[in-house]
Amino acid sequence: MSGRAISARGDDVAGRHDLALAAVTVVGLSRLIEPPGIWLAAIFLLGAILLGTLQVLGDERARVEGPGLGVPVESLILPAVAAAACVGAIRLVPFGLGLAPALLITGLLVDRCLALEARILASPSGVDAEARTAVLVTTLVVAFLGFVGVAAMIPGGLVQPAPAGGGGAAPLPETDLLVLVAGDAIIAFLLGYRAVALRVSNARDALLSAATYAAAIAIGAAAVRFMEIPRLLGPALLTLVFYLWDAFHGAAPAHRRDPRWLWQIALLGVLGVVVIVLNLMARG
Q1: 3-state SS assignment for residue 230
Q2: Boundaries of every domain in the chain
Q3: Which residues of the chain have a pLDDT value below 70?
């Protein structure tokens, strides 16, 4: 490898590290912000990392393959969602020395996502089986942190076990419940788009599929809250739902003309109505 190539590769790695460090800085400072301002910090970081990833991966691709090649939208999602998820998840870490390893994990996760996407873009053979597995595992980790983070940014979002002899957890106010469901759905939509983009090249098909991920997780989030599943078990179950939906929904776009595709949509609609009715009954 020539000295110029080594220098260029060093610049690429340094660019990823710098972006990950910027994410760590914002996540650390966000620990001082309380709701609802924390949502602005998460949205700001999501947008900033999207743009930063576009710049970093774009520069890397230009050095390897020459100018004129853009960066696919799906390549920007994992690092950005990972950073935004950590804004919420770190709220579960008390002030003190425990923040140091939490911030270290944040930096490692964002850097891992950037390196993974860079490797996929640089691969001449496209996305192989190993890369698909790596994307799936990383997506599930980010999904779990995202679902934890959304709940942590809402007062009472994570259900705490009731004391012995006490009643169940108080239901969330309607506004907070809608925010919880919408936040989880947005995370599922973005990560679902990333997962589907590994299988399809048509943006319309990817968007439609990602919308079903969002609907499935929205229903799951409302159901988990209705059942008052405590602490981190709720986000873990949502992550399982995301994985199962991805496995169940992994058919090629041509198969979606099959009647089973319509049954999927109908089932989501019925489940959504049932969960809404149950939550309304619990509030009544």
Answers
A1: strand
A2: 1-126, 128-284
A3: 1-12, 64-69, 125-126, 162-170, 250-284
